[in-house]
């Protein structure tokens, strides 16, 4: 949410600093960057998770889960973090697209 507020505040601060063409280019590049992150970066993370259980292994090796359900807790935490990343990128995409209109 804070990242979305930052993007909106920046869009209101920039018009006084630049020409309309530069501002349009900035918004276009900002939207393109978030689309790239959402489509390709998160896609690569999903591919790595599918091929080698990348996210789950990350949480198992770097965090401590006490008890005999450590693997299940790591899977749950990896999925919750994945949902947060996906939601953040989706909110930023829609927020940036609204700024372009």
Helix and strand content put the structural class at mainly alpha
How many domain units? 1
Q: Mean of residue pLDDT?
A: 83
Low-pLDDT sequence parts: none
What is the helix fraction of residues, given as a range?
over 70%
Order of helices and strands: HHHH
Got a strand count? Answer: 0
Gross morphology is elongated
* Count of DSSP H/I helices: 4
Radius of gyration based on Cα positions: 18 Å
N-end to C-end Cα span: 20 Å
Please summarize the sheet with the most strands: none
In a nutshell, what does this entry contain?
The chain has 101 residues and is mostly helical. It has four helices and no strands. The model has no long low-confidence stretch (mean pLDDT 83).
Short key terms for the protein model shown above:
101 residues, 84% helix, 4 helices, 0% strand, mainly alpha, elongated
Task: Give your account of this protein's structure.
- This protein has one domain.
- About 85% of the residues lie in helices and about 0% in strands.
- It has helices at about 1-15, 20-50, 55-60, 70-100.
- It is an all-alpha fold and about 100 residues long.
- The radius of gyration is 18 Å and the shape is elongated.
Task: Summarize the helices and strands and which ones pair or pack.
Layout: H1 2-13, H2 20-52, H3 54-62, H4 70-100
């Amino acid at each position: 949410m804070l990242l979305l507020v930052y993007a909106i505040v920046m869009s209101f601060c920039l018009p006084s600093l630049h020409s309309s063409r530069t501002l349009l280019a900035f918004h276009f590049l900002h939207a393109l960057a978030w689309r790239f992150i959402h489509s390709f970066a998160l896609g690569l993370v999903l591919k790595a998770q599918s091929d080698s259980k990348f996210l789950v292994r990350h949480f198992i090796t770097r965090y401590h889960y006490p008890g005999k359900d450590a693997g299940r807790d790591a899977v749950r935490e990896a999925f919750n973090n994945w949902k947060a990343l996906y939601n953040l990128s989706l909110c930023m995409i829609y927020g940036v697209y609204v700024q372009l209109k």
